[in-house]
Automatic annotation (TrEMBL):
Protein name (Swiss-Prot/TrEMBL): CDP-diacylglycerol--serine O-phosphatidyltransferase
Entry's Gene Ontology BP terms: phospholipid biosynthetic process
Mode of membrane association: Multi-pass membrane protein
Record InterPro entries: CDP-alcohol_PTase-I, CDP-diaglyc--ser_O-PTrfase, CDP-OH_P_trans, CDP-OH_PTrfase_TM_dom, CDP_ALCOHOL_P_TRANSF_CS
Catalytic activity: a CDP-1,2-diacyl-sn-glycerol + L-serine = a 1,2-diacyl-sn-glycero-3-phospho-L-serine + CMP + H(+)
Encoding gene per record: pssA
Similarity remark: Belongs to the CDP-alcohol phosphatidyltransferase class-I family.
Organism this protein belongs to: Candidatus Avibacteroides avistercoris
A molecular function (GO) term: CDP-diacylglycerol-serine O-phosphatidyltransferase activity
Amino acid sequence: MDKIRLFTLPNLLTSLNLLCGCMACIWALYGSYETVLVLVIASAVFDFFDGLVARAMHIKSRIGLELDSLADDISFGLVPSMVVFSLLGSYDYSCIPEWAGIMLPYTAFAIAIFSALRLAKFNIDERQTTSFIGLPTPANTLLWVALAAGCEAWLKMLSPVWLIAGVAISSFLLVCELPMFSLKLKTMGWHDNRVRYIFVITSLIIIALTGVKGIALAIIWYILISLLLFIKQRNHVSY
Protein backbone atom coordinates (compact mmCIF):
# COMPACT_ATOMS: atom_id res chain seq x y z
CA MET A 1 0.00 0.00 0.00
CA ASP A 2 1.35 3.43 -1.00
CA LYS A 3 2.12 5.92 1.75
CA ILE A 4 -0.81 8.23 2.42
CA ARG A 5 0.24 11.87 2.06
CA LEU A 6 -1.76 14.12 4.35
CA PHE A 7 0.31 17.30 4.28
CA THR A 8 0.17 18.52 0.70
CA LEU A 9 -0.47 22.04 -0.57
CA PRO A 10 -3.95 21.17 -1.93
CA ASN A 11 -4.88 19.62 1.44
CA LEU A 12 -3.62 22.74 3.20
CA LEU A 13 -5.89 24.90 1.05
CA THR A 14 -8.81 22.56 1.74
CA SER A 15 -8.06 22.78 5.46
CA LEU A 16 -8.15 26.59 5.24
CA ASN A 17 -11.56 26.24 3.57
CA LEU A 18 -12.65 24.14 6.55
CA LEU A 19 -11.19 26.62 9.05
CA CYS A 20 -13.08 29.52 7.47
CA GLY A 21 -16.26 27.44 7.56
CA CYS A 22 -15.82 26.66 11.27
CA MET A 23 -15.22 30.34 12.04
CA ALA A 24 -18.27 31.31 9.98
CA CYS A 25 -20.45 28.96 12.06
CA ILE A 26 -19.38 30.76 15.24
CA TRP A 27 -19.95 34.22 13.81
CA ALA A 28 -23.38 33.13 12.57
CA LEU A 29 -24.41 32.43 16.17
CA TYR A 30 -23.33 35.97 17.07
CA GLY A 31 -25.49 37.33 14.24
CA SER A 32 -22.50 38.92 12.50
CA TYR A 33 -23.64 37.99 9.02
CA GLU A 34 -21.29 40.38 7.20
CA THR A 35 -18.35 38.56 8.79
CA VAL A 36 -19.92 35.24 7.83
CA LEU A 37 -20.16 36.43 4.22
CA VAL A 38 -16.47 37.36 4.14
CA LEU A 39 -15.51 33.96 5.57
CA VAL A 40 -17.76 32.11 3.12
CA ILE A 41 -16.19 33.96 0.19
CA ALA A 42 -12.76 33.03 1.58
CA SER A 43 -13.89 29.39 1.83
CA ALA A 44 -15.04 29.49 -1.79
CA VAL A 45 -11.67 30.91 -2.89
CA PHE A 46 -9.77 28.17 -1.05
CA ASP A 47 -12.18 25.57 -2.46
CA PHE A 48 -11.48 26.81 -5.98
CA PHE A 49 -7.71 26.86 -5.62
CA ASP A 50 -7.29 23.49 -3.89
CA GLY A 51 -8.52 21.69 -7.02
CA LEU A 52 -6.61 24.05 -9.32
CA VAL A 53 -3.36 23.49 -7.43
CA ALA A 54 -3.91 19.72 -7.26
CA ARG A 55 -4.30 19.56 -11.05
CA ALA A 56 -1.29 21.83 -11.62
CA MET A 57 0.86 19.65 -9.34
CA HIS A 58 -0.57 16.42 -10.82
CA ILE A 59 -1.71 15.29 -7.38
CA LYS A 60 -4.54 12.76 -7.42
CA SER A 61 -5.50 11.72 -3.92
CA ARG A 62 -8.51 9.91 -2.48
CA ILE A 63 -7.67 11.62 0.81
CA GLY A 64 -7.93 15.00 -0.93
CA LEU A 65 -11.32 14.13 -2.40
CA GLU A 66 -12.70 12.97 0.95
CA LEU A 67 -11.26 15.97 2.81
CA ASP A 68 -12.70 18.34 0.21
CA SER A 69 -16.20 16.90 0.63
CA LEU A 70 -15.99 17.08 4.42
CA ALA A 71 -14.76 20.67 4.31
CA ASP A 72 -17.47 21.65 1.83
CA ASP A 73 -20.19 20.15 4.02
CA ILE A 74 -19.08 22.45 6.84
CA SER A 75 -18.44 25.60 4.79
CA PHE A 76 -21.36 25.18 2.38
CA GLY A 77 -23.73 22.95 4.36
CA LEU A 78 -23.50 23.68 8.06
CA VAL A 79 -22.80 27.42 7.65
CA PRO A 80 -26.10 28.27 5.88
CA SER A 81 -27.93 26.11 8.43
CA MET A 82 -26.32 28.06 11.27
CA VAL A 83 -27.29 31.35 9.62
CA VAL A 84 -30.93 30.30 9.26
CA PHE A 85 -30.90 28.79 12.78
CA SER A 86 -29.69 32.14 14.13
CA LEU A 87 -32.38 34.04 12.22
CA LEU A 88 -35.16 31.68 13.31
CA GLY A 89 -33.93 31.87 16.90
CA SER A 90 -34.48 35.63 16.93
CA TYR A 91 -38.27 35.42 16.44
CA ASP A 92 -40.89 35.73 19.17
CA TYR A 93 -42.76 32.42 19.41
CA SER A 94 -44.98 33.37 22.34
CA CYS A 95 -48.13 32.76 20.28
CA ILE A 96 -47.37 29.05 19.78
CA PRO A 97 -46.64 26.22 22.24
CA GLU A 98 -43.25 26.54 23.91
CA TRP A 99 -42.01 23.21 22.56
CA ALA A 100 -42.80 24.31 18.99
CA GLY A 101 -40.90 27.56 19.45
CA ILE A 102 -37.90 25.61 20.70
CA MET A 103 -37.96 23.09 17.84
CA LEU A 104 -38.73 25.36 14.86
CA PRO A 105 -35.21 26.86 14.51
CA TYR A 106 -33.79 23.35 14.15
CA THR A 107 -35.58 22.96 10.81
CA ALA A 108 -32.65 25.01 9.46
CA PHE A 109 -30.43 21.93 9.63
CA ALA A 110 -32.32 20.35 6.75
CA ILE A 111 -29.98 22.46 4.61
CA ALA A 112 -26.93 20.73 6.11
CA ILE A 113 -28.47 17.29 5.56
CA PHE A 114 -29.42 17.95 1.93
CA SER A 115 -26.05 19.61 1.28
CA ALA A 116 -24.34 16.40 2.45
CA LEU A 117 -26.60 14.38 0.15
CA ARG A 118 -25.85 16.74 -2.74
CA LEU A 119 -22.08 16.48 -2.18
CA ALA A 120 -22.21 12.69 -1.94
CA LYS A 121 -24.24 12.56 -5.15
CA PHE A 122 -21.81 14.91 -6.90
CA ASN A 123 -18.84 12.67 -6.08
CA ILE A 124 -20.32 9.69 -7.94
CA ASP A 125 -22.42 11.42 -10.62
CA GLU A 126 -20.52 11.30 -13.93
CA ARG A 127 -23.01 13.72 -15.50
CA GLN A 128 -21.60 16.62 -13.46
CA THR A 129 -18.17 16.95 -15.01
CA THR A 130 -18.88 20.09 -17.07
CA SER A 131 -22.12 21.32 -15.47
CA PHE A 132 -24.25 20.71 -12.40
CA ILE A 133 -27.39 18.77 -11.57
CA GLY A 134 -29.10 20.65 -8.76
CA LEU A 135 -27.99 23.85 -7.04
CA PRO A 136 -24.27 23.80 -6.09
CA THR A 137 -23.71 24.09 -2.34
CA PRO A 138 -21.51 27.24 -2.57
CA ALA A 139 -24.26 29.04 -4.51
CA ASN A 140 -26.88 27.98 -1.96
CA THR A 141 -24.67 29.22 0.87
CA LEU A 142 -24.04 32.58 -0.78
CA LEU A 143 -27.79 32.96 -1.28
CA TRP A 144 -28.59 32.50 2.41
CA VAL A 145 -25.64 34.43 3.81
CA ALA A 146 -26.12 37.39 1.46
CA LEU A 147 -29.83 37.50 2.36
CA ALA A 148 -28.95 37.54 6.06
CA ALA A 149 -26.21 40.15 5.62
CA GLY A 150 -28.14 42.44 3.29
CA CYS A 151 -31.76 41.95 4.33
CA GLU A 152 -31.63 41.01 8.04
CA ALA A 153 -34.15 43.64 9.17
CA TRP A 154 -36.56 42.72 6.37
CA LEU A 155 -36.26 38.99 7.08
CA LYS A 156 -37.06 39.54 10.76
CA MET A 157 -40.27 41.36 9.80
CA LEU A 158 -41.49 38.27 7.94
CA SER A 159 -43.23 35.34 9.54
CA PRO A 160 -40.79 32.51 10.33
CA VAL A 161 -43.01 30.36 8.11
CA TRP A 162 -41.45 32.07 5.09
CA LEU A 163 -37.94 31.21 6.23
CA ILE A 164 -38.94 27.59 6.85
CA ALA A 165 -40.50 27.50 3.37
CA GLY A 166 -37.21 28.86 2.03
CA VAL A 167 -35.36 26.05 3.79
CA ALA A 168 -37.65 23.50 2.12
CA ILE A 169 -37.17 25.05 -1.35
CA SER A 170 -33.43 25.35 -0.84
CA SER A 171 -33.16 21.71 0.27
CA PHE A 172 -35.13 20.59 -2.78
CA LEU A 173 -32.98 22.61 -5.19
CA LEU A 174 -29.81 21.01 -3.81
CA VAL A 175 -30.84 17.48 -4.81
CA CYS A 176 -33.27 18.06 -7.69
CA GLU A 177 -32.53 16.95 -11.27
CA LEU A 178 -32.49 20.49 -12.68
CA PRO A 179 -29.40 20.99 -14.89
CA MET A 180 -27.48 24.15 -13.95
CA PHE A 181 -24.70 25.65 -16.01
CA SER A 182 -21.12 25.94 -14.79
CA LEU A 183 -19.01 29.08 -15.08
CA LYS A 184 -16.00 27.07 -16.28
CA LEU A 185 -14.85 28.12 -19.75
CA LYS A 186 -13.43 25.70 -22.32
CA THR A 187 -12.94 28.51 -24.82
CA MET A 188 -13.24 32.30 -24.63
CA GLY A 189 -15.64 32.55 -27.59
CA TRP A 190 -19.01 34.26 -27.32
CA HIS A 191 -21.03 31.54 -29.07
CA ASP A 192 -20.17 28.77 -26.61
CA ASN A 193 -20.28 30.99 -23.53
CA ARG A 194 -22.92 33.64 -24.16
CA VAL A 195 -25.13 32.40 -21.31
CA ARG A 196 -22.17 32.56 -18.91
CA TYR A 197 -21.08 36.01 -20.09
CA ILE A 198 -24.61 37.40 -19.90
CA PHE A 199 -25.04 35.97 -16.40
CA VAL A 200 -21.73 37.37 -15.13
CA ILE A 201 -22.27 40.84 -16.64
CA THR A 202 -25.86 41.17 -15.41
CA SER A 203 -24.91 39.82 -11.97
CA LEU A 204 -22.12 42.38 -11.60
CA ILE A 205 -24.58 45.14 -12.52
CA ILE A 206 -27.11 43.84 -9.97
CA ILE A 207 -24.48 43.69 -7.21
CA ALA A 208 -23.15 47.15 -8.10
CA LEU A 209 -26.66 48.62 -7.89
CA THR A 210 -27.96 46.79 -4.81
CA GLY A 211 -24.89 45.93 -2.72
CA VAL A 212 -24.63 42.77 -0.62
CA LYS A 213 -28.22 41.73 -1.25
CA GLY A 214 -27.34 41.71 -4.94
CA ILE A 215 -25.32 38.53 -4.37
CA ALA A 216 -28.52 36.77 -3.31
CA LEU A 217 -30.37 38.26 -6.29
CA ALA A 218 -27.60 37.01 -8.59
CA ILE A 219 -27.98 33.46 -7.26
CA ILE A 220 -31.75 33.63 -7.79
CA TRP A 221 -31.04 34.91 -11.32
CA TYR A 222 -28.70 31.94 -11.85
CA ILE A 223 -31.45 29.52 -10.81
CA LEU A 224 -33.99 31.21 -13.10
CA ILE A 225 -31.64 31.16 -16.11
CA SER A 226 -30.92 27.46 -15.51
CA LEU A 227 -34.64 26.75 -15.28
CA LEU A 228 -35.36 28.64 -18.52
CA LEU A 229 -32.57 26.79 -20.33
CA PHE A 230 -33.97 23.49 -19.09
CA ILE A 231 -37.48 24.37 -20.30
CA LYS A 232 -36.12 25.41 -23.72
CA GLN A 233 -34.15 22.20 -24.00
CA ARG A 234 -37.20 20.15 -23.09
CA ASN A 235 -39.17 21.96 -25.78
CA HIS A 236 -36.33 21.42 -28.30
CA VAL A 237 -35.76 25.14 -28.75
CA SER A 238 -32.17 26.09 -29.55
CA TYR A 239 -30.44 28.84 -27.61
